[in-house]
Specification:
Elements: H1 2-44, H2 48-52, E1 59-61, E2 64-67, E3 71-73, H3 74-77, E4 78-79, H4 83-86, E5 89-92, E6 99-103, H5 104-113, E7 123-124, E8 130-135, E9 138-140, H6 142-157, E10 164-168, E11 175-177, E12 186-193, E13 198-204, H7 209-213, E14 216-231, E15 246-252, E16 270-272, E17 287-289, E18 291-293, E19 298-305, E20 308-316, E21 320-321, E22 325-329, E23 336-343, E24 346-349, H8 356-359
Parallel strand pairs: 1-7, 2-8, 19-24
Antiparallel strand pairs: 1-4, 3-5, 6-8, 9-11, 10-14, 12-13, 13-14, 14-15, 16-17, 18-21, 19-20, 20-22, 22-23, 23-24
Subcellular location: Periplasm
Main location: periplasm
Protein name: Flagellar basal body P-ring formation protein FlgA
């Protein structure tokens, strides 16, 4: 009886232990389940650094850009952007020396697609609708082109073109090259007809990719020139021209007309008879000496002779400048005399001996 009881107890204990082990297994599994979920979450969150790269601070769109590159980056467009996102290309820049615009809506759309921003609200546009982009450039002017062609003519054909001007068919073309280039423009190919003075030239600037893609070719002719005096600024009527107001330039002879002033001394200290335009060649009728005696003015007539000086009053019959010969009338005798203006209100007369008394 006792043996059976002991045997039953042992069997019952074994069954209890087995049940306890089975009951503990689900708890162990339920304890490991959160670890598996966290691992999965960690695996899914692996690309998180790309999201973290999106800036969380204030981003402001710039209204104007001045660039030297051919690409516009997001860092150029957006102030406050840094890192790889700032160096990411967004749009192509305008051509050298040109200005273009980019609509703000296009910038926002492109920035969202590139992952630069998540939402349009992250980018402050300050109320403007477009961004103005200017591409920096060095411009080659007509004077540089002419100097290069003349140097090529001297070097290749022995032509001294200093007395000529270069008339380019259709005018000098606009030329823009990379702003960092400082080399001079030079002739690479040149043909010249000495009889007609017609020429054809190809010009380039060392290191310019722009001129390699679009070479500069011109057709033109050498034309004779003359030296002319031109005002450097607008001159008002009655204004006296000074040394700094005029410059001597060479202009094509054809079409200039006659009576051109070619010596600056003929214009300096002269008075403009009419309004003069800057850059328009002066003619002899455009200027005159400054009048210091007006018509009808009372002046002092001075008779000068060896050991003799007589002064009297007279009235001028015409206006004149220093050194001009004018006629004056003696109001007492009504006689008219010819004298030279020697100063403001002063006319000098040197009559023959024996006529002084009769002139009074």
């Amino acid at each position: 009886m006792i043996r059976l009881t002991l045997t039953g107890l042992l069997l019952a204990a074994a069954a209890f232990d087995a049940g306890t082990a089975l009951a503990q297994q689900p708890r162990a599994r339920s304890g490991t389940a959160p670890v598996a979920i966290a691992s999965a979450a960690a695996t899914q969150a692996a690309p998180a650094p790309a999201v973290a790269a999106v800036p969380t601070h204030r981003l402001v769109l710039r209204p104007e850009l001045n660039l030297v590159r051919d690409l516009v980056t997001y860092g150029d467009l957006i102030s406050g952007l840094s890192g790889d996102l700032a160096g990411m290309a967004a749009f192509r820049a305008p051509a050298l020396g040109e200005t273009g615009t980019i609509q703000v809506g296009r910038i926002v759309e492109a920035a969202r697609a590139a992952g630069v921003i998540r939402d349009a609200a992250e980018l402050e546009s300050q109320g403007f609708a477009q961004v103005v982009v200017t591409r920096a450039a060095r411009r080659i002017g007509a004077n540089e082109i002419e100097a290069a062609v003349k140097a090529g003519l001297q070097e290749r054909f022995g032509v001294d073109a200093r007395m000529f001007a270069l008339a380019i068919d259709g005018g000098a073309p606009p030329v823009a090259i990379e702003p960092e280039l400082t080399g001079e423009i030079a002739v690479s190919d040149l043909s010249f007809d000495a009889r007609s003075r017609r020429l054809q030239a190809r010009l380039t600037v060392p290191g310019s990719a722009a001129m390699r893609l679009k070479p500069l070719r011109i057709l033109g002719q050498l034309v004779e020139t003359v030296e002319v005096v031109v005002p450097k600024r607008a001159i008002a009527r009655g204004e006296t021209l000074g040394r700094d107001d005029v410059i001597v330039e060479r202009r094509p002879r054809d079409g200039q007309g006659s009576e051109l002033i070619g010596d600056s001394r003929a214009a300096i200290d002269k008075v403009a008879r009419r309004a003069l335009l800057a850059g328009v060649p002066l003619r002899t009728g455009d200027v005159q000496r400054e009048e210091i005696v007006a018509k009808g003015e009372l002046v002092t007539i001075v008779y000068e002779g060896p050991g003799l000086l007589i002064t009297m009053r007279g009235r001028t019959n015409e206006s004149g400048a220093m050194g001009d010969v004018v006629s004056v009338t003696n109001p007492q005798s009504k006689r008219t005399l010819q004298g030279t203006i020697t100063g403001p209100g002063r006319v000098s007369v040197k009559p023959a001996i024996g006529r002084i008394a009769s002139a009074q």
